[in-house]
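thread: overnight batch results

M.L. [08:02]
morning all. the overnight job finished for the chain we discussed friday. pasting input first so we're all looking at the same thing
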Amino acid sequence: MKQHEVIISLGSNENQEENLTKAREQLTQLMTEVHFTSAIWTEPINSSRKEPYLNQLCKGTTAFSEGLLCEVLKETEKRIGRIKNEDGIVVIDLDLLEYDGQRHHLRDWSRDYVKRLIGEIES
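M.L. [08:03]
and the structure it wrote out:
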């Protein structure tokens, strides 16, 4: 079965450390050769809430197709407790940044924390 290289961003602004721990546990079960960057605190962008985000990147390999991986990431967010709401709470956000070298969420690649953390993955 073909393995695909992926980079996933993790972020939370609610019970940040606990929720990132839960996300790392889930991602470790979903993928192989999983490596996590350090986690860094960032200020919220375009949010009514003042709570900082805790962000991290994950690099790993998976047999999932791109579409299936995105579905699994959304299901993982729900399992950890994410619901769609209007008050700016992000229990967990898991975004597929790269799949077999193809970049997604292009706006995120220009964010300082992604630029900083991607260096940890590539070194």
